[in-house]
Amino acid sequence: MSKKEIVRQIAAHLNQQLATMKEAAKATHEASTGDEAKAEGKYDTRGLEASYLADAQAEQCQKLERSVHVFESLILADHPSGGSIGPGDLVETEHEGIFHYYLLTPCAGGISIEYEGYDLTTVSPEAPLYQDLLDRQVGDKLDHPPLLILDVF
Fold it and tell me: Is the Cβ–Cβ distance between 85 and 127 less than 8 Å?
């Protein structure tokens, strides 16, 4: 498996999410500043609510932009033979005959892509699974979720 190609696919996925989020943020900003946002009474909070949403979406855009930058400049080394799992490793797992791959990334956890016919999910340091996989080796078993570590790249 080519980690370089996987990182490229994830960066493309993030760029796509960013474009969608920017469109939504722009529309929300326009809604929060347009004529329709003006209060028609003292209990009309549409404009205020729209401005809160616009701020949150702008924050999400910034977070996505940082993630895109990280992935566009990310270079992952090959896993040392016989070594423990660490940041940047691609981990092949199996549970009840189903194979799944996890890429330990510095950010943007939870992204799922298909690579070479297999499901692959990014796992960031905030995720309990990331912490559970760290320092494990091929052949180790996890309890929650129940996974057998088959290989590390």
Answer: no
